[in-house]
Amino acid sequence: MQELNYENLLPATFPGYSFASFNRDLHMKKLQKLTLLFSFALAGCYAMGQKAQEQLNGVLWMQTSVEFQVSTVQAFRFAELRVRDALRDPKWTASLEQSSEYEQLPPAVITDVDETVLDNSPFQARLVRGNTEFDAAKWNSWVNEARADALPGAKEFISFLKANGVTVFYVTNRSQERSTLDNIQRVLDPDVTPEQVLCKNEKPGWGSDKTSRRAFLAKKYRILLLLGDDYNDFTFLGAVSPENRIRKAQAQSDFWGRKWILISNPLYGSWERALYESGSSESDKLITKYRFLKTKN
Ligand SMILES: [Mg+2]
Fold it and tell me: In the 8-state DSSP scheme, what is residue 45?
């Protein structure tokens, strides 16, 4: 394997930083790394920060890669094309909950919030840095900061919808309506109103299954498009095996990329919960995940 030439890499990456000092640091880092690995081994590293470490590449992909940026911009640009088609076709609806005589209703788009239009990767980064796991109190505190950025392309898409008379509804399983509204106002749409944000349990019957909220909106609006990062943002799946999730998606193939647009989320989702029994210990979850790896040998 060809070795990396640090001397060539350095000038562009770290101006003013000499190769000699880099090389010295590299040796120090190697030593520190070995010491760290040894400490982990002694401590029986299996459980230590395992879950947080699993998030590292996903967080970095979201926060540093141009590939993630491009993937979300692509999705929103494609969504815009589909909305243009939908506006020209009065029979077009993206909602399975839409019943008859919807053709004359005003147009709307339903979007999820987290990892669809708002980027919570700083929250995930804090978990990785803190070597700790998700819990409701930490999440609540992050949401109340209302400091999530817009995902690349989301603001432009929402501006396009507004300019074309399409109302955007944010159907989210967050429960913190005020701070969610503040965050959306700040980074996505300064004119957003509380009526456009439909939180979980905001009304009786609005549970984590979003069907009832889509049905509520479909009575008053023609739904042109659904956007989400999770299958349950489009139709409720429940506890279904990974194989059956894929089968269901194949049966609904007419919707994907046409009326339903999915944003990639490398960090979490119902896909992960489909891998193991609910209530499993962290170590059991990890063992089960490894069993799902396909190696073709
Ligand atoms: Mg989401």
Answer: G
* Centroid of ligand 1 to alpha carbon of 129 (angstroms): 22
Question: Any idea how long the chain is?
Answer: 297
Q: How far apart are CA 234 and CA 110, in angstroms?
A: 9
The string over 187-206, giving b where at least 16 C-beta atoms fall within 10 Å of a residue's C-beta and e elsewhere, is bbbeebeeebbbbbeeeeeb
Q: What pLDDT does 50 receive?
A: 66
- Express each pLDDT in 157-177 by its tens digit: 999 999 999 999 999 999 999
| Ligand 1 centroid from CA 215, angstroms | 19
**Residue 261 near residue 253 (C-beta atoms within 8 A):** no
CA distances from 109 to 15, 127, 260, 275, 284 (A): 47, 32, 10, 31, 40
Q: How far is the CA of 92 from the centre of ligand 1 (A)?
A: 25
Please tell me the distance between residue 169's alpha carbon and the centre of ligand 1 in angstroms.
14
Distance 282 CA to ligand 1 centre (A): 23
Residue 184 backbone zone (phi > 0: left; psi -120 to 50: alpha; other: beta): alpha
